[in-house]
Amino acid sequence: MLVPKLERMIGVEVYVTPSVGIDGAIRQLVEDFVVEETLVDGSRAEKASSKTRAVLGSSSIKSHYLLCVLTKRDWDMFKALKTVAEQLGTNVRRIQIAGIKDARALTSQYITIEGVSAEDVQKVNAKDINIHPVGYLRYKLSSYYLLGNNFKIAIRATKNSESTIRKRIKETIEQLETVGGVPNFFGHQRFGTVRPITHLVGKAMVEGSFQKAAMQFLAKPSRFEHPESRQARMQLQATQDFEKGLKNFPKKLRYERLMLKHLVSKPDDFIGAFRRLPIKLQKLFPQAYQAYIFNKFLSRRIASGFRLNRAEIGDYAVSVERSGLPLSTMYKIANSETLTEINKAIAAGKMRVAIPLVGFRQRLSFGIQGEIEKRILEKEGTMLGNFKVNGMLEVSCRGELRTVMTPLNNFSLVEISSDSVNPSKYKTKVHFMLHRGSYATILLRELVKPRNLIKAGF
User: Fold this and answer.
1) In the chain, domain spans
2) CA-to-CA distance for 252 and 231, rounded, in angstroms?
3) Active site includes 102?
4) Which residues contact 144 (CB under 8 A, 6 or more apart)?
5) For a 10 Å CB count at each end of the chain, is N or C smaller?
6) In degrees rounded to 5, what are phi and psi of residue 263?
7) Among the options 23, 74, 76, 102, which is catalytic?
8) pLDDT reported for residue 48
9) Which CATH superfamily does the domain covering 1-182+406-458 fall into?
10) What would be the CATH architecture of the domain defined by 198-277?
11) In this predicted structure, what is the pLDDT of residue 52?
12) 145, 44 contact by CB (below 8 A)
């Protein structure tokens, strides 16, 4: 089945299910994409929750970190956190999150804020942002405490009949259950759909070419972005005039403008320009290149006919916690002596096949999968040691193992109804839960099989 060009550009080259998609579009309305975070203790961040349970052992006794539920509608994660920090009169680095959430969505998640009170956060007043204090903790939040995310998704503008939609979704879910879950590709938002360049910037950084990286980020246009933004990028590409670029770039391109302001006064300091960005955003660039390579590794594995729920000789297999989360540091390498034992553990849900998320400390797989990975890296012209980024060591990537599939939890087809936004078409509501680090859009692409990625809202 043909995969859209924009997906192939981010390394996602295959579908794992042969079923026909229902077609349609996601995110036509912000409320069509609802995300609610779940922590390892079972606590769920909900938009209008009045629950009083002690989340992660929080209490009403004042301590160093205030735990809150942050609900945002149609906000970029980094911009939302900066807005909250500014209103609290604190540094954004004093706000901690467990995971990054989608921008075009209605999302609820836990955050900790260092050195503020419950009374302080109740004064935050920003459109489409709400902060609800939960209690105080003696420690800050991190991804360690995140179990996953619950999704409530509406797929609109489907032309097929209700019976066809129901049949196709049933077939796709059954096929995913057969292969052991959802392929654990990195999703579209990791790279950008309208302008998928994050991994290209990361590749240039890994190669040590910071000027190239900066110009990719600032001046590489996309035909899918707003004409004003595209024109500004094209002019900068042609003139290399940072001062003129700063005048031309629209205010909404905030991160680009931060870099341009630095380059106006220091036109050769591209590393310094990147350091004007939030550190989490700086790190996202080489991490996106890691993700691209992982997607290529996984695409080639699937295309080569290797199963996701069975190890081959040379594969890594990681242990799984009782919660279902993989333990990437606890692994075995399948060989002729351990293969049967590992595959029994995989069948019992105690292990999962994993492949490298490349980095300067992570070795490639062995066996045939290892050969696949070597060929891809050779074609990329990249070596593992390059991920120790000289000049910007703070964005270096050590690497780790990532499972090739992720479980699909609590999937339900909630409703198929007439679509008020698209007359004579149908709206399908689905709910499901995915573990941390996995992407809803990867499941949704298997259900929808979109032909036009932009039009379909991915």
Assistant:
1) 1-182+406-458, 198-277, 305-403
2) 14
3) yes
4) 40
5) N
6) -70, -25
7) 102
8) 58
9) TruD, catalytic domain (3.30.2350.20)
10) Orthogonal Bundle (1.10)
11) 56
12) no
